[in-house]
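Hi R.,

As promised on Friday, here is the backbone we talked about, encoded as structure tokens. Could you run it through your design pipeline when you get a chance and send me back a sequence?
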């Protein structure tokens, strides 16, 4: 008697699970979930005032509280801002929306994460890489 009851319970569970996994509103549609790093357009759509630049095909952003609190040591220069646009969201490497052309980009000695330092107008700013994952 217990075997049919167990079989019945498992059958109902499988049917409920399968029914819960279907989405009738998307019938015939292909849904793609991307896990790519955000681009400048996405970041500036979410926060039009974000201070960002692109380096090695990754967007970096400053003004992040926990990053600003870190004590970091500047290492070697790895680049500099070559172009600036406060309207174009199709960024290229070493392009910024707020940093001036010529601002120097530095790596850090610490292994605190994907952070770069930028020397601009006598200040050192901390930028975090916005990466998926």
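Update: got your reply. Pasting your designed sequence below so it's all in one thread:
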């Amino acid at each position: 008697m217990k075997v049919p009851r167990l079989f019945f319970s498992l059958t109902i569970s499988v049917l409920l699970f399968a029914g819960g996994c279907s989405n009738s509103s998307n019938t015939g549609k292909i849904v793609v979930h991307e896990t790519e790093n955000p681009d400048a357009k996405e970041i500036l759509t979410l926060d039009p005032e974000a201070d960002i630049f692109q380096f090695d095909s990754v967007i970096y952003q400053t003004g992040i509280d926990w990053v600003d609190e870190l004590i970091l040591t500047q290492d070697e220069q790895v680049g500099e801002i070559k172009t600036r646009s406060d309207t174009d969201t199709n960024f290229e490497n070493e392009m910024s929306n707020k940093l001036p052309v010529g601002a120097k980009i530095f790596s850090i000695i610490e292994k605190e994460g994907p952070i770069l330092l930028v020397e601009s107008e006598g200040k050192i700013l901390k930028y975090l890489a916005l990466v998926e994952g």
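One thing I noticed while checking it: The first strand starts at residue 52 and ends at 55.

Thanks again,
M.
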